[in-house]
Amino acid sequence: MSTRIMLISAFPIRLVSAFFCALFFSLGAAATERHLLVLGDSISAGYGMSENESWPSLLTEQLPKHYRLTNASVSGETTAGALRRLPGLLAENRFDIVIIELGGNDGLRGYPVAGIRKNLATLIRQSQQHGANVALMSMKIPPNYGRRYTAAFEALYAALAEEHKITLLPFILDDIATNPQLMQADGIHPNAQAQPLIVTKVLTGLEGLLN
Predict the structure, then answer these.
(1) What's the alpha-carbon Rg for the chain, to the nearest Å?
(2) 57 an active-site residue?
């Protein structure tokens, strides 16, 4: 009789043990998963190409396995437009890294530099308040906007990175925008051939955060 009791009582103990082992490993996997957000404009939205050709999609394939990426980029997006969208994104997800690739459309429309800087600073602060590390992409605009405006526009990115102690990524179209073979017919957007080059730049810039 005692042997039967021991066998019967041992069975649920093994089940409980297996359950807690499974729970432990699932919690461990959840704890190590990291989430990356790309908040950008047409450069990051893959304008003029299929979604799987865009640099954020290609970046997903090269990130460490415990990373997942959400690309919330929209063609034509401005810093003001992103400010309206970011709170909802942050409320729905917990992001470990937020890449901000914005300001180009603001600059091309000649918006005041002070306003662009203020909007970007708010995007950075909102991301940081939700526990995310922020990487800000540098931006450049054509010289025909005048030296004073162009210089002030380009300088705001390094200033914001220093002020908020965040990662500053390089302008991803350097050495690409001047190569017709890497640009679409409009001369503004990089083509599919340029996307792997952009990924390399982004990965290099993100190395510190990813590790």
Answers:
(1) 23
(2) no
**Digit-coded pLDDT (tens) for 77-110:** 999 999 999 999 999 999 999 999 999 999 999 9
Tell which residue, 102, 101, 134, 148, has the closest CA to residue 206.
Answer: 134
In this predicted model, what pLDDT tens digit does every residue of 57-76 receive, in sequence order?
999 999 999 999 999 999 99
pTM: 0.85
Among all chains, which residue has been given the structure tokens 């306003």?
Answer: 115
Q: In whole angstroms, what separates CA 15 from the centre of its chain?
A: 42
- Active-site pick, 41, 42, 44, 127: 42
Active site residue 186: yes
Q: What tokens appear for 104 in the block?
A: 């180009």
For residue 175, indicate whether it is catalytic: no
Q: Are strands 133-137 and 167-169 parallel, antiparallel or unpaired?
A: parallel
